Amino acid sequence: MALADYFGRAALAAVQVLEGFDQDRFLERLSSIKVGIAFDGKAEGPQAEALLDLSVRILSRLYPELVINGPDEPAQRLRELARSINPAIEFIDEADVGIAVGSLQDPFPASIYAGASGWDALIDDHKPQRLGEADNPLGAGAAACLASAGIFRHVFGIGPPDQNLRFSTFTQDRVEVSTPPPRKRWRLSDEAVLLGVGAIGNASAWALTRSPLEGRLHLVDTETVDLGNLQRYVLCSRQDVEVAKVDIPQSSHPELELVRHQQTMQEFFACEGYVWKSVLLALDSAPDRCAAQASLPAWIANAWTQPGDLGCSTHPNFCGDDACVACQYLPEGQAPNEDEIVAQALGIPQMQMQVRTLLHTGASVDRELLMAISESKQVPLDRLLPYEHRPIRDLYVEGFCGGAVIAVDAAAPGPREMHVPLAHQSSLAGILLAAALIRKEIGADPPATRKTQVNLLSPLGSDLAQPLMARGDGRCICEDPDFRAAFELKYYGE
After folding, report:
1. Beta 110-117 vs 120-124: how paired, if at all?
2. Rounded to an integer, what distance in angstroms lies between the CA atom of residue 390 and that of residue 363?
3. Contact yes or no for 123/421 (Cβ under 8 A)
4. Residue 212, Cβ density class (10 Å: 0-12 exposed, 13-18 middle, ≥19 buried)
């Protein structure tokens, strides 16, 4: 089977969403149920191109065999794109389930029809969906994510496809009819910042760089792409390993200038200042999100994935009665320390003090500790030896959270902040994040905090977007008089 060499990471993502998962069953489903994309000459224009592009970027990361049927030249370009993502991928002639774009009827035994109309994603399991002409990739990108989610549910038998679905990236909810947003030029009123160019940030950058957006967008991320990232970083090809994450996005519109900062968030604020009117959070951890809120941007949108759902929230007013970003991440009880989490995950709770020292000093793991892990977790020692003389955090993140050491059928879901999402999950979160920024810049942002949560393991429901009030218990920084005074002084001079 032509699995990508980063398959283990994709399998870890699946283990957290498939009940009763084991690796053999996972491989059996991937080999026995074939997946495809079919389109015809009606699939033309920027929305069709965006839908097909992102569909290929998502599907080719997980499925080792793929049908791509359509007019010769665009079909060949899409095959080349798929091969750049998984050089081992095999192209086949027939599939059991697939995404249909254009006017094709029943190209597969089970067809998921995808279309887009501006901000809206259109999905159905019975009839072809329309494709708009606007230079707006948001609805098309969401359609690719929702159709890919339907493919995943079909392949693994966890739910039916969506029927007669219109999902608006503008309202960030299911809608019955199209509601045209204000017709206004897409221009950033001030320079904006995207914090994090990982899985969610990749998808946000995919959407923003394909949009007719004008202005300056700062990309902030200190890391480079590694092999474990590829299963969900939709802008990345196999050749992008070891490339700085901030260097991956490329704007297709000359009016959008990308300013790249290979720095931590703290380094960026220290160098570039703390006064930012628009900040997008595509960060991995709750502490980083809270730290970003504590820097007091004027407006924040925050996107995330977690076991069971993904989401996006917008926070237009730090000093009101609405929730700030930090309100969502304050612990309700005593949380375990990092050394306790790592020691438990590695199966050596009796060595917690040694783990604490290794985490604090960055010292290398020795053979004795690896032997203890091998015995406790029943992992062959030779699979652990590549981590000898490396920091213990590498062993934890790459080996255990990344699925490189323990077979995925033995891996239990890790801590919430270490969740590894599937590509269609993080991609939809990123597109919602991009849509929130554009909606704000055209003057259509909701006046109060709104939070959308989406579960892609079942057909979409309704009323996904809800208001979100501040905690009201006095524990959050948005209720602290010093923070509120600093915010008012920063932006209003009061």
Report:
1. antiparallel
2. 8
3. no
4. middle
Bridge partner list, 36: 67, 98
If you write DSSP's letter for every residue of 354-411 in order, what string do you get?
HHHHHHHH-PBPPHHHHHHHHHHHT--HHHHGGGTTSBHHHIIIIIIISSSSS-GGGP
Mean of pLDDT values over 26-39: 89
**pLDDT over threshold 80, residue 409:** no
Within 13 Å, how many C-alpha atoms sit on residue 434's CB side? 30
Residue 360 neighbours by CB distance under 10 Å = 10
Per-residue pLDDT of 223-267, as tens digits, reads 999 887 888 899 999 999 999 999 999 988 889 999 999 999 999
pLDDT at position 301, please? 98
- What is the domain partition of the chain in residue ranges? 7-169, 192-332+421-492, 346-412
Q: Among all chains, which residue has been given the structure tokens 């991995």? A: 284
CATH of 7-169, one of 3.40.50.720, 3.60.15.10, 3.20.20.150, 3.40.50.150: 3.40.50.720
Q: Which residues pair with 21 in a beta bridge?
A: none
Q: Do domains 7-169 and 192-332+421-492 have the same CATH topology?
A: yes
Token pair for 297: 């941007």
Q: Higher confidence at residue 414 or residue 133?
A: 133
Q: Which residues contact 412 (CB under 8 A, 6 or more apart)?
A: none
> Does the structural domain 192-332+421-492 have CATH classification 3.40.50.720?
yes
Residue 36 pLDDT level (bands cut at 50, 70, 90): very high
Rounded to 10 degrees, the C-alpha dihedral 274/279/280/284 comes to: 20
